[in-house]
Design goal:
It comes from Arsenicicoccus cauae. The chain is mainly alpha-helical. It has a domain of 52 residues. Helix 1 packs antiparallel against helix 2. It is flat, with a radius of gyration of 23 Å. The N and C termini lie far apart (75 Å).
């Protein structure tokens, strides 16, 4: 059963507001109100993202963070590129900035 995107958006926004309120009035590290609001927010987001995809073929640029995501890169902090996406352009820059420049007269 598909959810109406506008209704899913309203539920998502309400969940964001409830999460904010729970976080702002948090009573300790494992406050059940915050944990519950977090889960409701994650569920509302997934429902909104799915409704958006079903209705319009679009998705948000957001994702749900899980504890499993912590294990993905234990070698260091994530800097925005995965190893296979990273290319070292410094070597090309040195060649371009080097001998091919002519002195001014």
């Amino acid at each position: 059963m598909s959810t109406e995107p506008r209704a899913a958006l309203a539920t998502f926004i309400s969940a964001i507001e409830r999460h904010f309120e729970a976080a702002a009035s948090r009573r300790g590290d494992d406050d059940p109100a915050v944990v519950n609001a977090y889960q409701e927010l994650a569920d509302a987001f997934e429902a909104y993202d799915e409704a958006l995809d079903d209705a319009f073929g679009e998705v948000t640029p957001l994702g749900i963070y899980t504890d499993d995501d912590d294990d993905d890169d234990e070698d260091g902090p994530y800097v925005g590129l995965d190893d296979e996406e990273y290319e070292d352009d410094d070597e090309d820059d040195e060649e371009e900035d080097g001998d091919d420049r002519r002195p001014r007269r």
